[in-house]
Each structure stands twice: as structure tokens, then as C-alpha cells.
Amino acid sequence: MNRRNFVRNMTASASGVLLGAGLLQDAAAQPKYRGDREERMRTIMRYRKLDAHVHLGLSNDPPELNVDFAERLGIDRMYLSKPVTRGPGAPEDFRACNDVILAAMKKYPGRLGGMLTLNPQHPKESLEEIKRCLGEGMTGIKVYYQIKINDPLFYPIIEKSIEHKLIILMHAEASLGIGGYRMKYDQKIKPNTSRPEDFIEAAKRYPEAMLQYAHTGGGPDWEYSCKALAPYPNVYVDVSGSNNENNMVEFAVATLGVERVLFGSDNMYYQSVGKIIDARLTEEQKKKIFFDNYNNILKKGGHHVS
To answer: Which range of residues forms the domain containing residue 31?
Structure first.
């Protein structure tokens, strides 16, 4: 690869960094607007955005931080969650997490939406929590690693999501070093973390369900994930995360179809906006990823943004 192509590929993959910094002035290697921060921001603000994967309080940060990033980057609404990431996830733990989200929603209505969390190891309490949180205006479910998405304990949760037309966002990995994945090193991933194969099994059992495979840009083997999930139209992927590899968004669109690709940040705000802005896609495709696709999912349950 010659120097110019090398720089072009590197700058594309670094789009999140370039978003705020205006670095690298080589006009031959990148679009001219990257050196003009004002024009860069005008481009960003052209698109309405719904953040389909974002958390509250990762480092005890207040909801004002989320709102600040939303205003900076033209994000109409963030769909917040606070999953239990440590310990067994007792009912009192996931209820407390959901209370944090509900308080933020009430403080910033119209700007912050909510996705409830639960633990299928506690089926009665989890179903009760779905009822409680839906009654308070939450619009989806976000689960972490306590149980794989294809575990029979998850069946009542998936069935309830179908009944209420809710999407389930599940923490996912495709870098466990098995099944022919490129990544072979040990990342200390929790043993119950869901893999593409687990999503496939759940999607085949419940074709009416809407399942969101989390953060293709969060470190997994995104090529493998997209190819594995392609035949299952009820599985969506969000391109959140700090991984900004060149061609990741374009590959997801080409492999899955643009309607199954969702914008999400996973709190990596600049990177996640930048990788879509710089993707080699049409304006219509970018609009769908940033806003329309997730809004169409919300519309099924009557929760869409006007």
C-alpha cells in the first residue's frame, strides 16, 4: 500500500478522534471538511439521531453529562440503561438500577428515554419489573451477562417483549477464541456472555422477537458477527463502541441491509458519530442508521419520536 492509501485508511478509522480535534491537514488524504471544524459540525448536525445504546452513571456521572453530549452532537434522544455489571444481579439490584434511569427520564423528558434491566434468574421479579417500568414509560430491555439470550430462563422475557413489541439489547461478544474467530487471546470475558450463535438460536426460536446485537465496534469480530447474523432478519446490530476500523459500518450495511444497522454510542460519542459520518454510504443510508431504523422499531410499540 502506498503512503497516500495508508493515510487515507488510517484517517477513516480514526474518524471519531478527528470529529472534535480537526487533526491531520493533508488535503489529499481526507475530505476537506475535516480540517474545518465548523463545517464538520454543520455536517454532523444535518442528521437527526437516536442513540440506541447508551448508559447512565458508568463512572457515577450525572444525566447532565448525557444531555450535554446529546446537545453537542445533535442527538434527539438517548435510550439509557444501567445494567447490573457486577455480582449476581439480585432483584433489589436491578430495581435500583432502573430507578436511576426513571429519575433521569423524569428530569429530562423528551431527551432521555429508558431501557429497563433485569435478571432472568429471577423470573417472577423480572416480569414484575417489566410491567413496572413499561408503566413508567420505558421502551426496551437491556441485559448484560448473567444469562445467555438463548437460555430457557430467557424465554418468558422474550415472550413478554414480543407481546409489548419491545427490542431486547443484549451485551454480546464474538471474540471468545472459538468457532474460527480471528481473535484468539483471552479477554477474560464472562462465560455467560452471548455470542452470535446464541442470538441465532434465540432468533430461530422467536422470529417475532426484536433482538439487538450490541456494539460491533466494541471489540468483537464484526465481520464474523455480521456474516453469522445475516440470515436472521429479526436481529439488528448497533455500531457503537470505540473500535473505529475502516469499512466496519459499510460491511454491516452490505451484509445485513441498511435497515438492520442502528446508531448507538455505548458512551463513545464522538467515535460513534464520526464512523457513520465518514462511512462510504449515501445520505439516505446515513439518515436511516442515525434515526429512521430505530424509530421504526419504536413505532411498532407506539413509542416513536415524531
So the answer is: 1-38
